[in-house]
Amino acid sequence: MSVWRAAAELARAGAGGALATIARTSGSTPVPAGTKLLVGPAGRLEGTVGGGCVEADAIARAAEVRDRGPTILTHHLNADLAGDLGLSCGGTVEIVVEPLVSAEHYVRALEQAASAVSGVVTTGLDWTAGPVKRFAPGPPLPAEVAGPAAELSADRGFLIERLLLPPRVLVFGAGHVGRAIALAADAAGFRVVVVDDRPEFADPARFSDRVAVCAAPVLEAVARFPIDAGDAIVIATRGHRHDAVILERVAASPASYVGLLGSRRKKAVVTKALVAAGVPVEALARVRVPVGLAIGAVTPEEIAVSVVAELVQWRRKQALSEPARATC
User: Fold this and answer.
1) What kind of architecture, by CATH, is found in domain 168-315?
2) Cα 131 to Cα 178: distance, rounded to the nearest angstrom
3) 239 burial class (0-12, 13-18, 19+ CB within 10 angstroms)?
4) Which positions ≥6 away from 109 have C-beta within 8 Å?
5) CA nearest 166: which of 231, 111, 105?
6) Interval 31-46: pLDDT, tens
């Protein structure tokens, strides 16, 4: 369950609690703006604002804001390092802590945010005349276009949150490894599409209800899910021939991440065949083979951890200049 949904349910029940949101960061901080922590009547329920003394303070303030409305906490993390609960980073983080209230318009804004793919949530920080929270729908935008997921207005009177579209991962192959990769990528917050031409494997019942499952050949799937620059593609089919068919179609696509499950020898064999078939060498050169970080992965679940770790690295734009990758 999302933090938005859990907060809406808690607020509608009138059970109390608070919602803490990272509103602004500078320097090195443990989590980015927009990260949320839901605090229930008995303490932490969902999410995090970074742990340590920062989170302890947010939880402590949850009880205080019930009667006075939202407050802004400011933590200078370099100073926090001196404490036993300090965090190993520097920088400044500002957190808005707001009470969860049962006012209908407030709850409705939370519910709309929980159900929406995109939009903007605006929370007024002065509740003298009552709670201020509203949701406005908007077109889905990737993070690099929309900017930070949350920020304070120039007058510090409003918290403005943008529901950003997470990167999409297309997993070709719904066997044991493909399924594990899809489930791990979903858990890590990616939008996931799984494609397999075998209906018994491309069965929605084998995946989370958040994962789109397509039982179709590659050409039909690519037509249904057009690939753009914000996408990542992971090829984990049942054999070299199927890998080659898919790679021929996606190697030169706009996707900024293309990975193929397999060994370096497999890369050489597949690349040779595809170059002979006319696929540009430069398009094949960018394909990550073996895909994933080098952690000695063996089982489907371990391989999924390896691949999704590299996907997270790609998403956060912290890729190493020449990362080592795991073999299958």
Assistant:
1) 3-Layer(aba) Sandwich (3.40)
2) 46
3) exposed
4) 121, 133, 134, 135
5) 231
6) 889 999 999 987 777 8
Which stretches of 197-252 are assigned E, i.e. beta strand?
Answer: 212-215, 231-235
Domain with CATH 3.40.50.720 in the chain: 168-315
The C-alpha R_g of the chain, in whole angstroms, comes to: 22
User: Are 257 and 311 a contacting pair, CB within 8 Å?
Assistant: yes
3-state secondary structure of 254: coil
Q: What is the pTM of this model?
A: 0.72
Query: Amino acid identity, residue 226?
Result: P
CA distance 42 to 26: 31
How far from the centroid of its chain's Cα atoms is residue 316's Cα?
10
For residue 20, the tally of other CB atoms under 10 A from its CB is 29
Q: Tokens standing for 63?
A: 């009880």
**C-alpha neighbours within 13 Å on the C-beta side of residue 113:** 26
pLDDT in tens, 155-186: 999 999 998 888 999 999 999 999 999 999 99
From the number of C-beta atoms within 10 Å of its C-beta (0-12, 13-18, 19+), residue 5 rates as middle
